[in-house]
Write a structure and sequence with these properties.
Chain lengths: 202, 253
């Protein structure tokens, strides 16, 4: 069973809703035992980095997620959930899960820039490597974003997709069974449906 | 490059969908669930639902109904109306709402904006600002719950809302509401100049050209009600939304 990890942050209902829309099912849980028996994991999340990490700690889920990830369980982080897969964030002091060698940094523009923070709205995603989630065939890929921080990968091979907002940033990354997307597939119409469906089919 | 958003605003009144004229005279335009389903099929960028009686009647959000809305929304959903606490915001997020829109509570005390933003992030809070011209033609802050114009400087209020943690500002030109006579472009320009976060402008959209003008005035997003629920000179109720290609050609070329 796919488990959507409930750690008190994130629009769990939207993610579950989308999973069901594409014909799948999932349980929403913060129970370590249930998570340990999952076939796949989704780590959603909206909020601040340290609050997210401390919530995972207080529920005893850090080691649980690490164990599942090292077993090869397909794991998908959404928005803050993506950021938590990285090693660290400029937004906080606590360590992330560390599956992806990346740092999360705040958008940075010149003071005369017309780009606002947060980056809110629909934007294009350019796939840069073969992957099972988003077609790398040049087809239109448009997703809904709302965030102030973005990932900077140490290993270029981890970058799955790039998006342009003032400058190009990493909007999706992956390593083996670990996937993270900065946007919200659960709120991105048919583009998001396709992504979630592909994740369910892994 | 980011695309500008075009956002239908749906007004809830006693569980039904209405459209107002200059914030008065609400006309019933249909069942909200049905409308949301149609907007979802049309792949709208985002949806804003405002309960226009909740704050007036000092009532909490109608969570059951909003949960049904969220179940139909495969795009971001913002809800406003009657939110007075972080816990209410938490409950809304937990049933599938992405953003809460705050006005009445923020007019009393911006702490609620800070509290929600610090817990759930700036992107989860919109502060909604309604502006009406007084008899001297000056822009004034309006409390939509009481219908009263306030003395407080509206641009200062906007700035304090952003400083408090609002991730977006929704500015509505009350005198243009429901008129479909075009947006208040000078108001949008003034608001943009005072606003360091994305600005959603509403009020007066009657055509695609009006949307383009609002974007040119600097708004990050344009919201509209009547334009998406009325059709033709006799204002027949018909839910419409421009095709994506139409919006691209309109706004990005």
């Amino acid at each position: 069973m796919l488990v959507i990890i409930n750690y008190g942050l994130g629009n769990l209902a939207s993610v579950l809703n989308m999973v069901r829309k594409v014909g799948g099912n999932a349980s929403v849980s913060s129970d370590p035992n249930e998570i340990l028996s999952a076939t796949k994991l989704i780590l959603p999340g909206v909020g601040s980095f340290d609050y997210g990490v401390s919530q995972l700690h207080s529920l005893g889920l850090i080691s649980v997620i690490q164990e599942m990830a090292s077993k090869g369980t397909p794991t998908l982080g959404l928005c803050l959930g993506m950021q938590l897969l990285a090693k660290r964030s400029e937004e906080g002091q606590l360590d992330g899960l560390g599956f992806i060698d990346a740092e999360i940094r705040r958008f940075s523009f010149n003071s005369n820039s017309t780009f606002h923070i947060p980056h809110v709205g629909w934007n294009h995603v350019s796939v840069v490597k073969e992957n099972p989630l988003i077609p790398n065939d040049g087809s239109e890929q448009r997703f809904y974003f709302t965030h102030s921080y973005h990932a900077v990968c140490s290993n270029e091979a981890d970058v799955l997709a790039m998006t342009e907002y003032g400058y190009p940033f990493c909007s999706a990354y992956s390593r083996d069974n670990i996937f993270g997307v900065q946007f919200h597939p659960e709120k991105s119409h048919r583009f998001g449906k396709a992504l979630i469906k592909r994740f369910l089919e892994l | 490059m980011l695309k500008h958003r075009v956002i239908p605003i749906l007004l809830l009144r006693n569980g039904g969908l209405v459209k107002t004229f200059k914030f008065a005279d609400p006309k019933y335009v249909g069942d909200p669930i049905n409308a949301i389903r149609i907007f979802n099929e049309k792949e709208v960028d985002e949806l804003v639902v405002l309960d226009i009686l909740a704050s007036k009647e000092k009532r909490e959000p109608n969570y059951d109904l909003i949960e049904q809305f969220a179940g139909e929304c495969f795009m971001p959903l913002a809800y406003g109306g009657g939110i007075t606490s972080v816990d209410q915001a938490r409950r809304l997020f937990s049933i599938g709402v992405e953003k809460v829109s705050i006005q009445t509570s923020a007019l009393a005390d911006q702490d609620i904006v800070t509290d929600i933003a610090s817990r759930y992030g700036n992107q989860s809070v919109i502060v909604a600002i309604d502006i009406k011209k007084n008899r001297f033609g000056q822009y004034k802050l309006l409390s939509s719950a009481t219908g009263k114009m306030l003395d407080q400087d509206w641009k200062e209020f906007l700035k304090t809302a952003v400083a408090a943690g609002a991730g977006e500002i929704l500015i509505n030109a009350v005198d243009r509401d429901g008129t479909m006579n075009g947006m208040d472009l000078p108001l949008i320009e003034l608001a943009v100049s005072a606003c360091s976060v994305p600005l959603i402008a509403a009020g007066g959209v009657g055509s695609l050209t009006d949307i383009k003008a609002g974007v040119k005035a600097g708004a990050s997003a344009i919201a509209a009600g009547a334009f998406f629920v009325y059709y033709g000179p006799h204002r027949a109720v018909l839910i419409t939304y421009p095709k994506y290609q139409e919006l691209i050609e309109l706004l990005e070329t």
